[in-house]
């Protein structure tokens, strides 16, 4: 069964999900943030089939989130290192952690992971705020409007005009 590609859709969510749209891809990135770099370490941590892991690592390197760095000549072996683009995905994972702890956890104080801010030393969680005023961004406080890259048909559907 062929997968529908959203890579060219005029929607940042659709394009991101086209790249990240399965649990293995996000888990490979999670492991990268934990410091995992080598194929066997990814496989051992995730219990993922080799062919599936190869495909996810190829996808993430091809998209620019990871880069392959040779660490051994004979046989040739590579590590997978987060790029700037890959590191920039961390706030997304932090937001997923916060949401999962709140809505899918086993109750208060049962989070399987704690994010500790290295600057102040406090345990923390992701909070999405307005880049201009610092106010919370919630569904009730944000208006969704067409951007300059939205096609006319989609603009009409969204605005009703």
Automatic annotation (TrEMBL):
UniProt-listed InterPro entries: HTH_HxlR (IPR002577), WH-like_DNA-bd_sf (IPR036388), WH_DNA-bd_sf (IPR036390)
Origin superkingdom: Bacteria
Record carries keyword Mitochondrion: no
Keywords per UniProt: DNA-binding, Transcription, Transcription regulation
Domain (HTH hxlR-type): residue spans on this chain: 11-108
Matches recorded under Pfam families: HxlR (PF01638)
The keyword Transcription is annotated on this UniProt entry: yes
PANTHER family, sorted: TRANSCRIPTIONAL REGULATOR, MARR FAMILY, TRANSCRIPTIONAL REGULATORY PROTEIN
This protein's name: Winged helix-turn-helix transcriptional regulator
């Amino acid at each position: 069964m062929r997968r529908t590609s959203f890579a060219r859709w005029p929607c940042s969510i659709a394009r991101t999900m086209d790249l990240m749209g399965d649990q293995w891809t996000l888990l490979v990135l999670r492991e990268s943030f934990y410091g995992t770099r080598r194929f066997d370490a990814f496989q051992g941590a995730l219990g993922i089939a080799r062919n599936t892991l190869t495909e996810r690592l190829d996808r993430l390197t091809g998209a620019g989130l990871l880069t392959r760095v040779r660490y051994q000549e004979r046989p040739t072996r590579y590590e997978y290192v987060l790029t700037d683009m890959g590191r920039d995905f961390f706030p997304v994972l932090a937001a997923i952690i916060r949401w999962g702890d709140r809505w899918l956890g086993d109750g208060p104080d049962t989070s399987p992971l704690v994010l500790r801010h290295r600057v102040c030393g406090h345990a923390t969680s992701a909070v999405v705020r307005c880049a201009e005023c610092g106010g919370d961004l919630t569904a009730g406080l944000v208006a969704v409007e067409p951007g300059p890259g939205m096609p006319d048909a989609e603009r009409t559907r969204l605005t009703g005009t």
